[in-house]
Amino acid sequence: MNAYLAWVPAPVNGVAVHKLMSNSGWIVTAEEIRAALAAYEASRGKDPAFLSQLVEEASWWPQWVAYLTAAADHGGFRVY
Questions:
Q1: 4-53 pLDDT tens trace
Q2: pTM check: above 0.90
Q3: Beta pairing partners, 29
Q4: How many Cβ atoms from other residues are within 10 Å of residue 61's Cβ?
Q5: Is residue 72 packed enough to be buried (19+ CB in 10 Å), middle (13-18) or exposed (0-12)?
């Protein structure tokens, strides 16, 4: 069951959106997290409107990025 819940479509470009849309025990892998963080870092200088608005309005954004960084270093996380 864990292999199913951790499955990632190839190529890994970030966290599979279906894993964040329910509390079904999905496993977000370190590989997905690292890809998402890399995409975030790559986009920071390009200032896409949706991302800059999110970061400005979301006081929790730095904490979320810190959590993802720590989770990537510890094998990922499970969504409940």
A1: 999 998 999 999 999 999 999 999 999 999 999 998 888 776 666 666 66
A2: no
A3: 76
A4: 14
A5: buried
